[in-house]
Amino acid sequence: MARYIVSSSVAHVLVCALAVVGLERGAAADQILENYSDSLTTYLHTSKSNEQDVRPLVDQRGVHIDGALRHGSSLPMMLAGNPFGEGWDSNNRLSSIRLDTGTFAIHDVDLALPAPGFSWVIGRSHNSRQKDSGGSYFSSNGFQGKNWFQLSQPEILLFDGATDDKDVLYLIYGADRFIEFKRHNSSSNQFKSKNGAAGIMDFATGAGSEPDTYTYTDQHGNKLVFFGFDNDSGVAKGQIWKITDPAGNAAFVGNAATGSTAITNGFNGSGWIIKAYDSAERRFTYTYTSGRLTEVKAETKTSGTWDSPSGVVERGKVEYTYYINADSHGEDGDLKLVKITTPLTDSGVSFFRKKAYWYYEGAYDATNNPGYTNQIQYVIDFEGFRKLDRLDSTDDDDPLSASESDMKAYAAAFFKYNTDRQIKSAWANGACGCAGGSGTGTHNFEYENNGGFSGTSGYDTAWKS
User: Which residues pair with residue 216 across a beta bridge?
Assistant: First the structure.
């Protein structure tokens, strides 16, 4: 057993005036790291994200306030103000468990094919510690499943401050990760990154019936364009449109040239991506069933355009299956199974991998059912799934129906939670002490608050938790 104590405090950070390289309208001596007290310790926006229904905790900001990276992105965003970080920053984790928030930080890449400059990444993150604006826990209910987030569809949200110069733009790039930007001044169309992040976000009004856009430019010169919040943005309000790297390599949703066409061709009526294209000109087709993302398929063509292609060949596919209320080990809308298929050179032959999740069901009980609905109980990773499923030499998804005692030795991770939905106990890689396992290796966690702490706006030097 291991006992961990993580102390976090908000301390003054002295930041040198560093050059902003590649940022439009950025002066050579602009300071990269700037803090904004109003949003430093408070997630200001009261709403959940428009399409994926997530609202991360303020402690889940994607960067530390010293500019070091806390949570990376699957898309090309160099969002950390300090690219070097410090060795101490790694102490907030035990493997993928965030010791400061008590959460399991999932950043799974399901499909990422090589392409010029960068890949269009299909992947997922998870967060079972989300709170609404009233401070109550809730389970998000997006198209990727309860508490899950599809990484290829980051979103922006605009918080309308009391005055224009207090407007804050949030870039949410996972269920448990975000960065924020503050409007430069009351008359500016530019938002400057704050609280450890780097880069700028530029607003542009759409011409005629074209939608408004917000363009994020990072330190390397990558540009990510999002649709605005005007009527012309329609169902795609706050959604990703296109990405361009400094070399001109581009990926986009729907159409690269015209925003209105991109919305029509690239999104369904709910504002979810249905067609995207990477810098290698592959087409990614998203399929939804009963409000859930069930498949993303990558294809190439030998000739023609994607409006009239020839020689279309599948190059990769990921399929998602979800629990229904009648199932064991998950409630309606929980992500059950991830199946990744990769076609091989031999015609008609493919390689596939499967990963599964079990969740807690029913009322919370600290001893007998230490988890809330939609919280992950077991992760059965690719190799554990394969080994257990092949005990009978058939591909019939045994890990989904196996007894808990038979499955435990093949699990990649197991979690128990406290009443604040933080992980209180965990083991990994079959270390359950059960038959076939690798011995015991349970970690227990305790979380304490400083009873004498009194928070104020901005920095506090006293330890909080």
Answer: 201, 224
